[in-house]
Design goal:
single chain; 154 residues; mainly beta; Immunoglobulin-like; 2 domains; four-stranded antiparallel beta sheet
Length: 154
């Protein structure tokens, strides 16, 4: 895999530290990315998104959804209620997990619901008025001063 040096980006730009940090985080291959639990991210509208996480076997009380410093943290810990059960086959994983999603600026969580073994988290991007594009009207040429008929005096 290729490695990139972001030092020139740090020297030539101001205020892009978050982008460089995000690129560094994505490019590192030290820790394998967890694959449990499976999830989907879908775009539901122009500025709306939904994260759906498969959480079969977990109740609402076992799940936790928090937003901390531009990160959405979804965690689950199953209460130990089946210590005396004997399984012939155990295919439903109910192990504890923590999944983090980095949120862009101006993205907020609008709600979460848990139904049919799926945890749905709705997100909305809300761009402040000051950052929205605005159209600047271009004024026409300034009107010329009215010409007055003048006669030479000499």
């Amino acid at each position: 895999m290729r490695s990139f040096d972001f030092a020139p980006l740090h020297r030539a730009s101001i205020g892009f530290d978050q982008i460089a940090d995000l690129m560094d985080r994505v490019m590192t291959t030290e820790a394998p990315q967890p694959s449990y639990p499976p999830y989907n991210i879908e775009k539901t509208a122009e500025d709306a998104y939904r994260i759906s996480i498969a959480v079969a076997g977990f109740s609402d009380a076992d799940l936790s959804v928090e937003v901390k410093e531009n990160a959405l943290v979804v965690a689950a810990k199953k209460a130990d209620d089946g210590a005396d059960k004997s399984y012939l086959h155990r295919g439903i994983a109910t192990r504890a997990f923590e999944r983090r999603f980095t949120l862009a600026d101006h993205v907020r969580v609008t709600g979460a619901s848990h139904e049919n073994g799926m945890l749905h988290i709705d997100l909305q991007r809300e761009i402040p008025e000051a950052l929205k594009p605005r159209r600047i009207e271009i004024a026409g040429a300034a009107p010329k001063a009215a010409m007055v008929d003048a006669k030479p005096v000499n």
